[in-house]
Amino acid sequence: MKSPLAPGIRLITSFSRDSWYRSFILFLTFLFYTAYHLSRKPISIVKSQLHRNCSTVIRPTDLNITNNATWCDWVPFDQDNYQTLFGVLDNSFLVAYAIGMFISGIFGERLPLRYYLSVGMLSSGLFTCLFGLGFYWNIHSLGYYAVIQVMNGLMQTTGWPAVVACVGNWFGKGKRGFIMGVWNSHTSVGNILGSLIAGAFVSTAWGMSFIVPGLIIACTGVLCFFFLVEKPEDVNCTPPQHHGDQESTETEPLLQNSSHADRNYTRSGGILSLPAFRQTGQLHLPVLASTLHLMLHILTQKRQETCRQLFDVGGIVGGIMAGLVSDYTGGRATTCCVMLLVAAPMLFLYNSIGQTSLGTTIGMLLLCGGLVNGPYALITTAVSADLGTHESLRGNSRALSTVTAIIDGTGSIGAALGPLLAGLISPTGWNNVFYMLISADVLACLFLARLVYKEAQGWCGRTPRVRGFKEI
């Protein structure tokens, strides 16, 4: 009598070759961008060690101390202007990241994604380690650390356009919102892991808080070089259906018309310009991403590290739910708008009652994290992929890299402006900072209003129902 096939083998053989490859690429790119975010986190952890309250620190008996108030601080962050110096480091990274993101999309179109990501992760690992080596080399120059932050910011821009382009190449529109909602949790997972790894070394040797994450992202760069497959066709897998039956419902292409788009795309060397967004009514999407990124970064400025991790956990759930609902309803704009409309009163409640008890604080952080991060995750992943794989760009799939870079690059401007605005407004009271956040939330909803109206028309049968953000 022939024995039945082992359950584990039956499970393995139940998936097709294409499914295994897609799952592998999804896991691999998740790992890559987790490493990117993991390597960004140490600076926020180490700040507490660079400038401390030295009166609470046990003084070594063999240490010759000339200043009792700052003996334990790391020069040059031992002065009264240490907050300004920290701001220089933060803005050096954020401004370089915002500027570099627009350039990164151009390179992402021209270079093989496997090489581009590998070099980017190895370079990012190098500069992250160099920041930490400043501890062992006893470097006390602000210029050294600022230059490292600028270079690291530029290298970090290699990640997002490339990984979104790669995932967009492997997955069609059918369940893209849910898949990318789950996949986009790498941001929060990376933040949490980065905090834990950096926190493990910060009190003994803060240099290791940078070196260990730097080595991790460098190792993932090596992994990328050996295992990443950019497109299904490269391994004889079936490419995803980006358009399919929906082609007949596309009444207006991403650019003016397909032939014109191809000519412009070729003449510009593959660059999707901002006028391309304007022609389809999508110009507000980068600005919307900037508004949401501003909200995220101001919220993270006010919280302690444990609270930040709770906010990130809420963001994971919010991103998944936003993707799932948008796939089911076919309305990405409406999903984002509803979440933002609910977020506005929740932000007001968090400011009013969020600190009354531990349970309330945890609940409000989880809720606000989900409501704010959900729309941002949807716009920067599924919507970017929808636009970048639009039928008008057929044959120019690398445009996805530029679309993603434009949206995330503009979003990064909001990340740079957020802490700056919070610093200017906070002296008048944190209540005013939250009022500004609520105003930004309402502004984001206004950017979406026209698209929500178009989607509602589709549901009412007045126009064909379509998935994603698009002009009708």
TrEMBL record:
Cell inner membrane in keyword set: no
Keywords: Antiport, Endoplasmic reticulum, Glycoprotein, Membrane, Sugar transport, Transmembrane, Transmembrane helix, Transport
GO biological process: phosphate ion transmembrane transport
InterPro entries hit by this protein: MFS, MFS_dom, MFS_trans_sf, SLC37A1_2, Sugar_P_transporter
Annotated ranges, domain Major facilitator superfamily (MFS) profile: 28-456
Highest taxon, organism lineage: Eukaryota
Entry annotated with the keyword Membrane: yes
One annotated Gene Ontology cellular component of this protein: endoplasmic reticulum membrane
Chief location category: endoplasmic reticulum
Location of the region described as Disordered in the Swiss-Prot/TrEMBL record: 238-262
Subcellular location: Endoplasmic reticulum membrane
CDD domains given in the database record: MFS_SLC37A1_2
Catalytic activity: D-glucose 6-phosphate(in) + phosphate(out) = D-glucose 6-phosphate(out) + phosphate(in)
Transmembrane segments annotated in the record for this chain: 20-38, 84-103, 115-137, 143-171, 183-202, 208-229, 330-350, 362-387, 399-421, 433-453
GO molecular function: glucose 6-phosphate:phosphate antiporter activity
Record's bilayer topology term: Multi-pass membrane protein
Protein family membership: Belongs to the major facilitator superfamily. Organophosphate:Pi antiporter (OPA) (TC 2.A.1.4) family.
Protein name: Glucose-6-phosphate exchanger SLC37A2
Organism: Larimichthys crocea
